[in-house]
Design goal:
There is one protein chain. The chain is mainly α and about 575 residues long. Strands 1-2-3 form a three-stranded antiparallel β-sheet. The protein is globular, with a radius of gyration of 25 Å.
Length: about 575
């Protein structure tokens, strides 16, 4: 049974909203459709096919219902006391989440669904069974949809269907997809994707996953290895689709260049994994951090899992992406040079010449790559990369060290000597992989103490986290939006770096400031944003990078074990153990 279209338009109270959403769709199992479920959208009269995949099918049904309602609300056909105050089935509901749902649901109706056919088969029995379950639970959902969990059917309890990523970005932000081809045995666990955030609808945004990935490798290691294999494959692929960029309308290149690590694996509105690099502000094929971050994460994941097969599978991409990056060493000093535009994760903050951030990442990358090369028996190549790393160390100190910290870059810009909170990101990962430090220990401690004094304690009395950029005078760097923001994930990564270098008290104090800001002062609990500023304004709620908090646990675990550092073995217990 279903409600008539006219009855939908007559519903007005917010208490009836869940009924409205459910009524918009009718579950059907026509004999002509084999191997799945079919919904009817009463706003268009169109049939929508949904494959029979347990939790995923349930999620799709609900996201479709929500998306349909949003369209109707936006068109003015239904007005329930003000659109942007309607909670729907997100009990903390906001307009942003409602509007994003229409975009998010598109991913369930594009080519990726077709890929499930090979797994699900074409039997109609599964569809019929699911249809029976749906009918049996229909009335319960109509009155308790997403509010009282004890009233929901069992299949609904297994997943979160809210767009809100409050209790764990990973749980509410993922989309399991098809089995990757060519992966043998129990590694064929499927593909994994999660969104960058509510505002930036891109899957597996890799420059940000660099920070967030500690959560995956520590909690769901097989998902992390699957994601990494996908990035490795994407690195070897290309997408020869001409593209112009918003940052420079005159620049053109291909959407995905071979051997350049992708920025993301696609967005929900296109075809993830097949149409990479949804990001179109800058040409990410020339970014100076992505390739380094890939190598470091590959080695970190190997250290954690001791999975030799994983290392062998990803080795071709590691070797190729390191070779690709050498083109950016313009002056042959061992460091990669920036092009004078925001060619890294700080994509609004221009950088020219060598930089503390990408220079450190590159040296750590070369060290990690040489370790992987040793494992692969490529000893000559390993020695070559180490020689370049030694050259880079000399250049790094000469060009960037000023006696108290490493300058933002070695240009002549007004902000070249700003104190960047993320300047030791490369050291953070090197230590996490139990690699040797590429900078003098005294310099590392001085730089961290300077950051703590200026970027942490010097901003809002330490109740905000680590400001991205601070001038030597103590004033916030106002070069751009991002230089005057505190990034949650960067703050946690900095805290982990401090813990690794023995500044445990300072590390926890740094993270505590962010806790005060997000949980006490500004009310961003369960929806950690990418950034906050000194006035408490946020950017991009429920953001991926904040998962870097798990890097603090990683650092603490390493200190507890106190294993000897040989530069080749892990200082933490492996995920396998």
């Amino acid at each position: 049974a279903h409600y008539k279209k006219t009855s939908l338009l007559s519903k007005r109270s917010s208490s009836d909203i869940t009924n409205v959403m459910l009524d918009l769709m009718e579950l059907q199992t026509p004999a002509s459709y084999q191997g799945g479920l079919m919904l009817k959208d009463y706003t268009t009269g169109a049939d929508v096919r949904i494959l029979a995949m347990d939790d995923l099918y349930v999620n799709t049904v609900y996201q479709t219902a929500r998306g349909t309602l949003v369209r109707r609300l936006d068109s003015g056909k239904i007005n329930v006391g003000g659109l942007y105050n309607v909670p729907l089935f997100d009990h903390t509901g906001t307009a942003a989440r409602l509007q994003q749902s229409e975009v998010l649901r598109q991913s369930f109706f594009r080519a990726q669904f077709a890929s499930f056919v090979s797994q699900v088969g074409t039997s109609s029995r599964r569809a019929s069974s699911l249809a029976s379950e749906e009918e049996a639970n229909r009335h319960a959902r109509a009155t308790s949809f997403g509010v009282e969990s004890d009233l929901l059917p069992n299949d609904i309890q297994q997943i979160e269907v809210e767009l809100n990523v409050d209790v764990g970005h990973l749980k509410d932000r993922f989309a399991p997809m098809t089995n990757p081809s060519g992966i043998p045995g129990d590694e064929s666990i499927g593909r994994f994707a999660y969104l960058e955030g509510l505002e930036y609808l891109m899957y597996n945004t890799y420059d940000v996953h660099f920070y967030a990935s500690f959560a995956l490798i520590m909690l769901f290691p097989k998902l992390e290895l699957s994601l990494q294999r996908d990035i490795a494959q994407a690195t070897m692929d290309e997408l020869r689709e001409p593209r112009r960029y918003l940052g420079d309308g005159n620049e053109r290149s291909f959407r995905k260049v071979k051997f350049a690590v992708p920025h993301d694996i696609g967005n929900p509105g296109e075809d993830p994994w097949r149409r990479m690099n949804s990001y179109n502000i800058h040409n990410v094929s020339s970014w100076k951090d992505l390739n380094s971050k890939f190598v470091l994460q590959i080695y970190r994941d190997y250290i954690a899992t001791e999975d030799e097969a994983f290392l062998r599978d990803t080795w071709p991409a590691v070797r190729s992406c390191v070779d690709y990056a050498f083109q950016f060493d313009i002056d042959d000093d061992g460091l990669l040079e920036h092009g004078g535009w925001p060619d890294h994760t700080y994509d609004a903050w221009p950088c020219r010449g060598a930089s503390a951030y990408c220079g450190g990442l590159w040296m750590a990358c070369l060290d990690a790559a040489s370790c992987i090369s040793d494992k692969m028996g490529e000893l000559e190549l390993s020695a070559h990369w180490r020689n370049i790393c030694e050259k880079a160390k000399v250049s790094y100190e000469k060009k960037l060290w000023n006696g108290a910290y490493y300058n933002y870059d070695d240009s002549s810009s007004k902000h070249h000597d700003s104190i960047h909170s993320d300047q030791l990101a490369g050291l953070w990962y090197a230590r996490a992989c139990n690699l040797s430090s590429f900078i003098p220990q005294d310099n590392a401690i001085k730089a961290l103490q300077t950051i703590y004094k200026f970027n942490v304690k010097g901003i809002n009395d330490g109740r905000l986290g680590a400001m991205n950029g601070v001038r030597p005078s103590g004033r916030v760097d106002n070069t751009c939006l991002q230089s005057r923001e505190v990034w949650t994930g960067v703050t946690y990564g900095l805290a982990a770096t401090m813990i690794q270098e023995g500044l445990v008290s300072e590390g926890f104090s740094t993270a505590e400031g962010l806790f005060h800001a997000c949980w006490e002062d500004y009310g961003y609990w369960f929806q950690s944003p990418e950034a906050v500023d000194v006035k408490g304004r946020y950017r991009s709620l429920s953001y991926m990078r904040a998962l870097a908090v798990w890097a603090m646990q990683w650092a603490l675990d390493a200190k507890k074990q106190k294993k000897p550092s040989a530069g080749r073995t892990s200082s933490i217990s492996t995920v396998k153990e």
